[in-house]
Write a structure and sequence with these properties.
By secondary structure, this protein is α+β, with helices and mostly antiparallel strands. It is about 30% helix and about 40% strand. It contains five helices and 22 strands. The strands form four sheets. Strands 2, 11, 12, 13, 14, 15, 16, 20 and 21 form a nine-stranded antiparallel sheet that branches. Strands 1, 17, 18, 19 and 22 form a five-stranded antiparallel sheet that branches. The protein is elongated.
Length: about 350
């Protein structure tokens, strides 16, 4: 009986060995020291780089409004028209005055040329020559004045049409059709699309580190979308009350749904250090215990408790419980099953 029992145990051991040999190896990864950056996160508010409120440069009644709040406009498009009857009449009057002045000048020029020839022939007196010259200069001055008046009235007429200074979106309309406007009255407000920046107030305790690295990224509140900054502008003086430094972060042109006034996070690089990282999926959490499965050179599996730090993408920092170079099971479920099987055989 003893011989038969030993033979059965030997067969069982051999079968277990063969079964273990046929099982696929556990996929592992090496815990590595990886250089990463430390960041200091602050709140920021988005604002438009190009934003303006257009005002009336002439007085008059609003004849037409072609755009309203939330409308997209292109550069040069007509936003508002002011009734221009009075300005057209003034322009026509100025043109008539210019035509009259030009006629007077032509006559004065011909008369001066005649008197000039006679004066050279000593037919007319010096007083007559001076009179003709003064009349010519006076008529020339009236022509210039009339030309300036025409230009001025043309500008007034052109200002009855208010155009978009750049492509953008309308955020406020300050007048209604039929309303009487005055010079300087706000007409419409808007901002340029795609040209946005973030305003951040940074405490003086970290401003030197921010100046040193000058690297930041903007994080939207969904905590999934990050935008690398185009340019960083740090104001050279601090606010006298809060003692914070204003920082402007220019955002690259993008298609994300970003609008002025939105709240975002700005992550500023403050240090560059090395951290021990492993894949986030290698962690196993049981109750209050966080652990990993370590595979040694002899393919032995050991469950080891660890203490974690920051998360960097799909990697997590191991602060204690693991050394650089050790192999960790990528799939903790598979490693746990294999470890239980080993315990059962023992």
């Amino acid at each position: 009986m003893t011989i038969l029992f030993r033979l059965a145990m030997l067969i069982l051991f051999c079968w277990s060995f063969v079964a273990m040999a046929q099982q696929p190896e556990i996929e592992t990864t090496q815990a590595k020291m990886v250089p990463i950056t430390d960041e200091f996160i602050l709140d920021g508010v988005i604002e438009a780089i190009n934003q303006a409120t257009l005002s009336a440069e002439v007085s008059g009644r609003i004849e037409a409004i072609h755009f309203d709040v939330d409308d997209i406009v292109k550069q040069g498009e007509v936003l508002v028209r002011i009734r221009d009857n009075e300005y057209r009449a003034r322009l026509e009057q100025s043109k008539a005055t210019l035509s009259e002045a030009a006629t007077v000048f032509d006559n004065a020029e011909r008369e001066f040329n005649r008197i000039d020839g006679l004066y050279k022939d000593k037919v007319v007196s010096k007083a007559q020559y001076d009179q003709a010259s003064a009349t010519l200069e006076s008529s020339r001055a009236r022509v210039k004045s009339a030309q300036a008046s025409v230009r001025q009235e043309q500008i007034h007429l052109d200002n009855t049409i208010i155009r978009a200074p750049y492509s953008g979106v309308v955020v406020a309309r300050h007048v209604k059709p039929g309303e009487l406007t005055s010079i300087g009255q706000p007409i419409m407000s808007g901002y340029a699309l795609g040209k946005l920046r973030v305003n951040v107030d940074a405490p003086q305790s970290i401003i030197n580190k921010i100046r040193h690295y000058r690297k930041t990224r903007v994080i939207l509140l969904d905590h999934e979308t990050g935008i690398t900054a185009d340019q960083l502008t740090i104001f050279p003086v601090a606010d006298s009350e809060s003692h914070a430094f204003r920082i402007r972060i220019d955002l690259p042109a993008q298609n994300k749904q970003l609008f002025p006034g939105m709240l975002v996070k700005a992550a500023f690089v403050t240090d560059q250090v090395e951290r021990l990282l492993i894949p986030l999926q290698s962690l196993v959490r049981r109750s209050e215990i966080t652990a990993v499965y370590v595979i040694d050179a002899a393919k032995q599996i050991q469950m080891r408790q660890v203490r974690t730090g920051i998360t960097e993408g799909d990697q997590i920092e191991i602060v204690a419980g693991l050394d650089s170079g050790e192999q960790v099971a990528i799939d903790p479920v598979q490693a746990g099953i294999r470890l239980k099987a080993m315990w059962a055989r023992q």
